[in-house]
Design a protein that fits this description.
The chain is α+β, with helices and mostly antiparallel strands and 475 residues long. Helices cover 37% and strands 21% of the residues. The chain folds into 2 domains: 2-233, Nucleotidyltransferase, domain 5; 289-411 and 445-473, 2-Layer Sandwich (Nucleotidyltransferase, domain 5), CATH 3.30.420. It has 16 helices and 24 strands. The protein has a 7-stranded mixed sheet with strand order 18-19-17-16-22-23-24, sandwiched between helices. It has a 6-stranded mixed sheet with strand order 3-2-1-6-15-14, sandwiched between helices. Strand 18 (273-276) and strand 19 form a beta hairpin. GO terms for molecular function: kinase activity. Residues 276-426 form the Carbohydrate kinase FGGY C-terminal domain. Belongs to the FGGY kinase family.
Length: 475
């Protein structure tokens, strides 16, 4: 039995797989987000207790020995821990917005672009750089008490193994301090962000990923464990996205577009990031957009429709939604990929008294599809495309996405991140697994040629509308 642990933002999961890659069992526990006045924090004790609980249940349910376990989880944010991996203060989530003014200042004074030109990482409010700089200015005592500033899965790994020091991996280190060419921290970036005196808080980088053995909490004592890539690259690995040019679209609360690449291009418009992986020379060009299923959730709630009605609503309105267009940039923080526009807001166009809820819903799904196409194009997609995430549970929306993107979609189901965590752990420990079998898609959805041609024109119109919206956002 192989176990993958995925420490998500709102749900912690453990999934068990057999040697052939069949998913045998999943256990999940919700964890809280404490939201107040633009801040989003989490209780590390609650998160760790949920990890131990789901592991205990999964391993007890199957009653078989665990050969190997892999760990993944949410990225970014700041999780300040002491020498034993225990919390110094509540974790600050990647969703946190307290550093908006600081990021705006860096956008204006050139720091933002200078960091991107060195690392290929476009800063956003919830990533470690701005958060550490904010803490250094407003809460220095917390940094003084900490032994390390890690990400979520790193805290869990240290606690499960009892490791004597904090360690991360190259994927979590990628934002924003890692030079993707050297796979080492860029001290010039640390200096640009005013954090030289806090440099010692950055954890050691396990390259390749760090390994250890469980101490007996959740997993049987002695179980081999690997501190794998965070959730985005873990999903890419679990979906079989490893060949240069191949991509993955995660249709979740936010859209995450990832394309495998061996190249690093630090030119162009600063946006997205390069995620280093456990294989030297292999990276993911990532465009993690703020737009996603949260936009659809808002439209469904506003129109009084239910998620269960989505497929029927999509069938009720024709392609193009009778002229209704939605620029689905509903996030209060604007957009961060494939461009950075903090002031951008959603726009609804072509609405009249004859507009029905189905038109708004379909136009929103189309708009999200156009945003995904924009991200994937910017990320350099040239090969196959896998999709996963909650949005793919709707067959009608998945077909619509295939049409809007104009390419076949390899739909990957199950706990894709946990699957990728196991594959990373197996490679690190020298355990031979059939990757093709582990990453086989559940189905392939082909685009309709006529609708794909229609949406190709719609995409160009989307880009024109977006250009106008970006100009208005800057006024």
């Amino acid at each position: 039995m192989f176990v993958g642990i995925d420490v998500g933002t709102s749900v912690v999961k453990a999934a068990a797989f057999d040697r052939a890659g069949r998913q045998l069992a999943v256990e999940a526990r919700p964890v809280g987000l404490h939201v107040r006045a633009g801040t989003v924090e989490q209780d590390m004790r609650e998160v760790y207790a949920a990890v131990v609980d789901v592991l205990r249940v999964v391993t007890g349910r199957l009653g078989e020995p665990v050969e190997l376990a892999g760990l993944t989880g949410q990225g970014d944010g700041v999780w300040l821990v002491d020498e034993a991996g225990r919390p110094v203060r509540p974790a600050i989530s990647w969703m946190d917005g307290r550093t908006h003014e600081l990021v705006d200042q860096w956008l204006a004074d050139g720091t933002f672009e200078a960091v991107f030109r060195r690392t290929g990482s476009a800063l956003f409010p919830g990533c470690p750089g701005p958060l550490l700089a904010w803490l250094d200015r407003h809460e220095p005592a917390s940094l003084d008490r900490a032994a390390a500033a890690v990400c979520c899965k790193d805290m869990v790994f240290q606690r499960l193994t009892g490791a004597g020091r904090a360690v991360t991996d190259v994927s979590d280190a990628s934002m924003p301090f890692l030079d993707p060419r050297t796979r080492r921290y860029d001290d010039g970036v640390v200096e640009l962000l005013g954090l030289t005196r806090r440099r010692w808080l950055l954890p050691a980088i396990g390259d390749p990923i760090a390994t250890g053995t469980a101490g007996g909490e959740g997993l049987p004592a002695g179980t081999r464990l690997a501190n794998g890539p965070y959730d985005l690259p873990a999903c890419a690995l679990g979906a079989g996205v490893t060949a240069p040019g191949d991509g993955l679209l995660i249709v979740g609360t936010c859209l995450a577009s990832l394309v495998a690449t061996a190249e690093v291009d630090l030119g162009g418009e600063p946006a997205g990031l390069y995620i280093s992986t456990d294989r030297p020379g292999h990276r993911l060009r990532a465009m993690p957009a703020m737009v996603g299923t949260a936009a659809l959730d808002w439209v469904l709630a506003t129109t009084g429709a239910r998620h269960e009605e989505l497929d029927a609503l999509l069938a009720e309105a024709p392609p193009g939604s009778s002229g209704v267009r939605v620029l689905p940039y509903f996030a209060p923080s604007g957009e961060r990929a494939p461009f950075v526009e903090p002031g951008l807001r959603a726009e609804l166009l072509g609405v009249c008294l004859e507009t029905r809820p189905a038109h708004l819903v379909r136009a929103t799904c189309e708009g999200i599809g156009y945003a995904a196409r924009h991200c994937l194009t910017a990320a350099g997609l040239t090969g196959t495309l896998a999709v996963c995430g909650g949005g793919t549970r709707s067959p009608a929306w998945t077909r619509l996405l295939a049409d809007v993107l104009g390419r076949p979609l390899r739909v990957v189901e199950g706990e894709v991140g946990a699957r990728g965590a196991v594959l990373a752990a197996a490679e690190r420990h020298g355990v031979a697994l059939d990757r093709a079998a582990w990453t086989e898609p559940a189905r392939v959805v082909e685009p309709d040629p006529d609708r794909a041609a229609y949406y190709a024109k719609g995409y160009e119109e989307h880009l024109e509308l977006l250009a106008g919206a970006r100009q208005r956002a800057r006024r």
